[in-house]
Design goal:
With 220 residues, the protein is mainly beta. The chain has helices spanning 89-92, 211-219, and strands spanning 18-22, 25-29, 34-36, 43-45, 58-63, 66-71, 75-77, 84-86, 100-105, 108-113, 117-119, 126-128, 141-146, 149-154, 158-160, 167-169, 181-186, 189-194, 198-200, 207-209. It has 5 domains: 8-46, Laminin (Ribbon), CATH 2.10.25; 48-86, Ribbon (Laminin), CATH 2.10.25; 94-129, Laminin; 133-170, Laminin (Ribbon), CATH 2.10.25; 172-210, Laminin (Ribbon), CATH 2.10.25.
């Protein structure tokens, strides 16, 4: 009796791949993205998404003989196509975070604004803070908002506080404006109370000797 080799390749083994007959057996070479089935009859899809780390920072979608990565927002496909890498928005768009500093974060970025600015509603840039909308700003004066700052213009008789946030009364009495009288400071102004025998002059700052007029009247 003579035993002859069975050509498994002619019996339909290794479907989807390249079958090579060998004495008493065969070998199956599957295309990239496929594996030989356990019985050796078929080339079946290899699920790349089952491998740890595939499409990191994204979603792995298995396809027949291949796969694709769908990256999360703020990420792009790496050169290998196996994972997703962070997009540096600060580098990609130098005009981002105007009036502030851009700091890249994984999948996003944040704006660190200059003094006098706050982050916009969409987080893309820094907008002016209207300090004049804050209650109590520039009391006893007028608040003028400026880009990134503000300025207080005080009413007459008032001056800026050291922090430049409000206006306080000027004590005119410190300069002793009332001659022959007593100075009384008031909010934004002052008044003179004359000593007995004196009356307030037209300038409102000096007291005139009224007794002099009385002597003249008697002399006449």
């Amino acid at each position: 009796l003579v035993c002859e080799d069975v050509d498994e390749c002619r019996q339909g083994f290794c479907q989807g791949g390249q079958c090579t007959n060998t004495p008493g057996s065969f070998t199956c070479h599957c295309p990239v993205g496929f594996d030989v089935s356990s019985d050796g009859r078929l080339c079946i899809d290899h699920d790349e998404c089952s491998q740890t780390g595939m499409c990191y920072n994204g979603l792995c979608i298995n396809m027949d003989g291949s796969f694709k990565c769908r990256c999360n927002n703020g990420f792009i496909l790496s050169p290998t196509g196996h994972s997703c890498i962070d997009v540096d928005e600060c580098y990609e768009n130098p005009r981002i975070c105007l009036n502030g500093r851009c700091e890249n974060t994984p999948g996003s970025y944040r704006c660190v604004c200059q003094p006098g600015f706050i982050v916009s509603a969409d987080g893309a840039f820094c907008v002016d803070t209207n300090e004049c909308s804050i209650s109590g700003m520039c009391a006893s004066g007028k608040c003028l908002n400026m880009d990134g700052s503000y300025r207080c213009v005080c009413d007459s008789g008032f001056k800026l506080t050291p922090d430049h946030r409000s206006c306080i009364d000027i004590d005119e009495c410190q300069s002793s404006p009332c001659q022959n009288g007593r100075c009384i400071n008031t909010q934004g102004n002052f008044r003179c109370e004359c000593l007995p025998g004196f009356t307030l002059g037209p300038d409102g700052r000096s007291c005139v000797d009224s007794r002099r007029d009385l002597c003249y009247a008697r002399y006449k």
